[in-house]
Each structure stands twice: as structure tokens, then as C-alpha cells.
Predict the 3D structure of the following.
Amino acid sequence: MESELIALLKSTIRGRPMRRAEIEAALGIQTPEAAERLSDLLRRLEAEGKIVRTRAGRYGLPEMMNLVRGTIEGHRKGFAFLIPDTPGSRTSTSIPAT
């Protein structure tokens, strides 16, 4: 089901995140057991950083939403760097102190 979900999220217009009900309908989820498997999959993929859940509760792919996955390396002076998980995708991004 993971590959079908990723393909579905890639196929959306301009990377528009989808509501859970839209995902269930598109994947043909009809039983409570299948809905529970989808919930587990969504939680796992979100924890792994493969998908993002927006504040509105929609799911999408970070790369299609102009987001970068990575690690934030903070310094004592208050500034930080975002180091991307994908090698060669970008150089580190500076995050200024506020």
C-alpha cells in the first residue's frame, strides 16, 4: 500500500496535499481493517519524514510542497543551519538568530 500511496500523492495537481477521506476514496479503502492499516502507514511515513501532515490535516510529499527534510544544527550564539537529508540536493541553509 505504501507505493500506491506515494504514487497517489505524486499524481496530485501541483503537489496539492490530500485529505484522509480523499486518500481513502482514491485507494478504494472500504473496511475498518484497511482504514486502520492506512492510519498506521500514514503515521509511519510521517514519522520517517516521507510525507507531511499540514495543520489542516492534509497529507503530501515534502518535495512537492517546496519543503526540505533535514537536520537543524544549532549554535550557542542563537543561529543554526539546516543540513538536508538528501546529499547534493542543496547546501546548508542558514537560519539567523532572532
In short: The helical segments are 2-10, 20-27, 32-48.
